[in-house]
Write a structure and sequence with these properties.
2% strand, 190 residues, 2 strands, Four Helix Bundle (Hemerythrin (Met), subunit A)
Length: 190
Amino acid sequence: MSHGGLTIFQTLRRDHRNIRQLLDALQSEIDRISAGGKADYNLLFMIMDYLINYPDLYHHAEETALFVLIQKHNELLAQAVDRILNEHKDAGMLSRRIAAAFHNMQHGTDVPIQHLQHMIHEYVARQKDHMAREETVYFPLLEHSLAPMEWHEVSEQLAKIEDPLFGENVRQTYLARHAAIMRLMMSPGG
């Protein structure tokens, strides 16, 4: 099934690669701040905007369209899929807590940096584990087991997610934001 020139699984794996890079950037920044470096709030808020909004706008909605098929056809995996879908919600809540902590820091509220560093390290580890399980268990299961009619069902669900006027433009905006963040991270002092 094609999805913007890529198969849905290529798109989801690209998203995971981009998210992993931003998680690494976030962890690097909090470690730098913890070591006494000055916080680059512009960079931190760009990272958090991506980690909060892009998954909710596209990535998790697309995964959900796929994962509900597992639930329908495999009772043994239905509970595991529920866990994965709940992890999406938990990640969103934790992302917002981290962004709020950065906002508070920027506005002079005393935020214990070691606590924030621990929270971010835990968040990064959980997110990476979550994506690894999706890529090694769930994506292969779906790639090799869905019937043509199920792919049609997924296509219909994905069409509902993708806004016909702004959808691909928004996706491209987030891909450009990812590239901008990576350039900032590579620049001297980044």
